[in-house]
Each structure stands twice: as structure tokens, then as C-alpha cells.
Amino acid sequence: MPPNYYTGPTGHSHTADVQSVQTAVLLVNLGTPTAPTAQAVRPYLAQFLGDTRVIDYPRWLWWLILHGVILRIRPARSAHAYARIWTERGSPLRFESEALAAALQAKLEREQPGTLRVALAMRYGEPAVADTIAQLHREGVRRLLVLPLYPQYSATSTGSVIDAVADAMKAMRWPPELRLINDYHDDDAHIEALAQRIERWWAENGRGDKLLLSFHGIPERYVRLGDPYADQCQTTARLLRQRLQLGEGELLVSFQSRVGRERWLHPYTDATVRQLAADGVKRLDVACPGFAVDCLETLEEIAMQNRDFFLAAGGQSLRYIPALNDSPEQIDSLAALLQRHLRGWPASRTDDGAA
Ligand SMILES: C=CC1=C(C)c2cc3[nH]c(cc4nc(cc5[nH]c(cc1n2)c(C)c5CCC(=O)O)C(CCC(=O)O)=C4C)c(C)c3C=C
Ligand SMILES: [Fe+2]
Ligand SMILES: [Fe+2]
């Protein structure tokens, strides 16, 4: 039988429950290297930076630069950064995403016993989107709801997940019915979750002089070409500012993680924290609402690198407020978001529980 050919509900599944569950939720995050070494980071960066959604230069030119220059230098530098945040559980992006998926599975199982599966895939590296969808398909999944773990849509992040899902579907004779959440940047429950998470953190740790929201940047050119990302970041920030009842000067927005020589979204986070310190701000709180779970970009770039920049420029403390991760706030808001997008699909037990 050809690979990915639907074998029916008795196919390859191991438990009665899995056999009967025809609807799956697939969470997709970016992916992360398997170890904090140049050797492990290199193939990860090659796949990531080789994606035309991420870098759209003409292929032959970019291939020469990527393989001739960047992949000779960057893996060692990135590996050094990864080593600073690596734990005995591995890469934070990976174990935090797994914890989120497990908590969502448990929550949805309590709400609708035996009707839904939650799976997790990574856009780059493992577990690959195509392999995960093929496995769900073999287990009899006929309806698939995909949630890319990016609150704001960008072609470079969400768009690339859509490509990977489309490629996986193309390889199937009878693909499952598909729904795909584009973004949840202005979802009421999501804004409420962010606000409560920040307020809870302030209640436990006290409050700084200002709150900076740092989002991952993208090249400005992509926004001119129609990417809604910058607008969605600003909307998330505006809604959060209203909900937290903060003034324009108390909640600021910046963009981090710039790569290469092009102009990226402004203002840059590193320049912003230095300027704030120079302006006399002593205690700065930073949150990164664009990241569903903590990762290199929050734990190393913000909580370590930018903290150092702020202190060196005269600031007293830069405190990073953790991502929503698998907090009750995140689980409740994402479960509600998923339930809304699942509406209209039949309850998926086909065996009336008799298996
Ligand atoms: C070079 C172009 C890049 C674009 C465009 C980009 C957009 C983008 N990225 C995220 C989320 C994450 N990025 C992460 C790491 C990371 N990002 C880039 C480059 C671009 N990102 C690189 C090269 C790296 C790897 C690390 C490094 O070498 O600096 C991560 C963390 C991964 C981890 O393992 O922890 C996340 C998450 C979004 C949301 C986005 C567009 C909006
Ligand atoms: Fe990135
Ligand atoms: Fe970075």
C-alpha cells in the first residue's frame, strides 16, 4: 500500500480511544535545534533560512550567501546563545510547547471526553509537520484544525506553516477536512490572558517604571508587500494597553531579533532599552506577547542580552515577564479559541464508544 494511504480506523492505532477519534488539533511552533552545538544548529538554520517565506532573495544568490558565508559563521554563534538557556529538559521552545500541548489535550478531554486529539509539530526540525499529519491520517483522523503558535500573522511564520500543511495535504489521496487559524492577535480571551498574566506577575514581583512589549521583527519591506504583521502587533499592544489602563508613555512597543542588513520594523528593542536607560528610566519590565512560549529570543535575547544593554546604559533592573507558556490563562484562552473554530464539526466518535 502506498505511504499515507488511508487504511481505515483499524489501521495503525494502538488504543480504542485513538481509533475512534476522528478530529485532531495540530499545534505548530517554529522548531529548535536538537542540541546547543554548532553541528546541531547548522541543519536547523539551513532549513529555516532556506525557506523562501523567511528570506525571499533570488535562490541562486541566496544559496551562495547562505552556504558560502552564513552557515560557516552563524551556527557557532547561535549555539553559544542556545547553550546559555539549555536545560536538562532540552530546549525551552520544545519542552514548553510540549507542556502546552499536553495541558490543552487534558483540558479539551475534560470538556469533550474522547472526541479530540491534540498533536504538536515543528515547522523546522522535528517532529516535522508532514510526518505528524501523515501519522494522524494513518490513525483515522478525518478533520484537522491547525493552530500555528503565533498570535500575529506573518507570511514568514504563519504563512510558512500554511505552506508545510499544504505540502502534507498534497501528498495524500484522501486528505482530512482542514481548518487553519490565521492569527489570534485581537482575540478577547487572549488579550485577557496576557493582561492577567502580567498583573499576576506584578502582584508577585512588584511593578517597574515602564512596560516594554518586544515583538519579533521582520524586514519592513515585507510589510510594504502586504504582510499584516506590524498592524497586528500594534493592535495587540493597543488592546493590552487599554485593558491594563496604561498611558502612551507607560507601555511601549519595540521589535527584536533583527538579522542581516535590511531595515527591519522600528523601533529596535536594543536601541529602545538603551535610550530608555539614557532617559533615566531605572526599572524596566519587558514582556514578549508575540511568543506563545519562552525560547531563545525571550530567555537569551531579552532576559540576558538586552538586560545587559539596559544596565550598561545606566538602568537599574530589566525584568522579563515570562510568556504565557502552559499557564492556566493560556490554556483557558486557547481552549476557548479552539472550541470556537471546531464548531460545526460533528462530534467525532464513530463507534458510539463501543470500541
Ligand atoms: C532572518 C529572518 C528571520 C525572520 C523574518 C524571522 C521571523 C520570525 N521569527 C519568529 C519566531 C522565532 N524566531 C526564532 C529564532 C530565530 N529567528 C531567526 C530569523 C528570522 N526570524 C533566526 C536565524 C533564529 C535562530 C536563532 C538565531 O540564530 O538567532 C525563535 C526561537 C527559536 C528557538 O529555538 O528558541 C522564535 C520563536 C517569528 C514569530 C517571526 C515572524 C513574525
Ligand atoms: Fe525568528
Ligand atoms: Fe535572536
TrEMBL record:
Fe(2+) binds at residues 216, 297. Pathway: Porphyrin-containing compound metabolism; protoheme biosynthesis; protoheme from protoporphyrin-IX: step 1/1. It is an enzyme of class 4 (lyase). Transmembrane segments: none annotated. Its main location: cytoplasm. It catalyses: Fe-coproporphyrin III + 2 H(+) = coproporphyrin III + Fe(2+); heme b + 2 H(+) = protoporphyrin IX + Fe(2+). The keyword Methyltransferase does not apply. The keyword Translocase does not apply. Keywords: Cytoplasm, Heme biosynthesis, Iron, Lyase, Metal-binding, Porphyrin biosynthesis. It is found in: Cytoplasm. Its EC number is 4.98.1.1. Catalyzes the ferrous insertion into protoporphyrin IX. Belongs to the ferrochelatase family. This is Ferrochelatase.
